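Mods, move this if it's the wrong board.
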Amino acid sequence: MPNISSVIKAIQDIMRKDTGVDGDAQRLSQIVWMLFLKIFADKEVEAEIIDDNYKSPIAEKYRWQTWAKDDEGMTGDELIDFINNDLFPYLQNLENDADKRAFIIKNIFQDTYNYMKSGTLLRQVINKINEIDFNSSEDRHLFNDIYEQLLQSLQSAGNAGEYYTPRAVTQFIVDMVNPKINEKVLDPACGTGGFLACTIEHLKKQISTSAEAETLNTNICGIEKKPLPHQLCTTNMILHGIDTPINIRRDNTLSKPINNISPADRVDCIVTNPPFGGIEEEGIENNFPASFRTRETADLFLVYIMKMLKHQGRAGVVLPDGSLFGEGVKTRIKEELLKTCNLEVIVRLPNSVFKPYATVGTNLLFFKKGEPTQHIWFYEHKLPEGLKSYSKTNPIRNEEFDPIRKWWGNKVENEVAWKVSVEEIVNNNYNLDIKNPNNSEEKILESPQELIKKLRNNYEEINTLLDSIEAELRV
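Not the wrong board. Structure tokens:
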């Protein structure tokens, strides 16, 4: 069994010698389309063993098993010519209305390119990928390691790091939302599919019949607007047993009028980390009611999530501090949230959870649609003792959430948990940025509103003092 980490590193080292691949983003894209075809090929081998009548959606000439499997097969100019002028045009125009897998393959390759120019180096990469057997349970399990390697590459590929959510955070959110086997689950900003992969593993524990297993194909839904994470997400779903992930769409979730969402579109659960700190393209805000119009991505996603949930639907969402204390449109969105949903818990995370991708303060919001909020529980997740901040080498760990899991079933106030009435929230202009009143270790930070008020008071006192001094000097 190969060492997955060393295989991926060897592939990246080979690609660095190729003059056509410029930087980490292209290198990553190149690896992803080849991994997808290898994984698809391995799944086909498995299908052919189970089903004697299995028919591939890909013509024999273009199957990975035909042109890539032989270590001494096509190479050099012949290989480059085949991929650029034969394979890619074929896959990008694959038509087979009777086979949903053909649609998925075509979708994957719509915006995919072969950047490598050396057929000899490309053959070396292919041979390395062939060392991995995705039908081996060990290798399939180790795909998580490949994933981690690829995700780490994202941080140096422009702003692509926005797709990554620590695995411990996705696991905790899915555990607390607790999707059931017959419920439809959506991540409207699914990136590489971390939340959905956790959801699948969560649901697999509930499966007792083949019919229930089949529901995963239709009940796991994701939307991602960028091609590279969409490819990774689709590949991830196939590896997690979703053979035809037709509900992983490439689209901009916010690009359609929100009022067009019908009851049939709504879902039972939403688990997501919508992009924040970004500004949507001009005109997107017009898809939302006038009182909620903004170009801040996280705010628009929160409005969308409220609309997409069924009655009694549940959500677990990552949001930045700015969404909690912001005013104007943000206030109106929070008012709508508290009126239409029961905002049950806000978990306040340390600033460094998303380091090195982002260092802003973040929060996990858990709410249920259909009844107004009466009170909100806050829980302050503190850094482990002795750790000053999280980092790539010291990320947040799943077991750190165990105290919150234990507390969740019997919520009581303590040094890290406190309850606030909705009346207090409303009287404070829907400010949800409420600091821990039980924090005895540190001086409690004041809210931005309190700081502004104090500065104004100080300014007035200084002016009064200066007027007094000036009057005395005149005398």
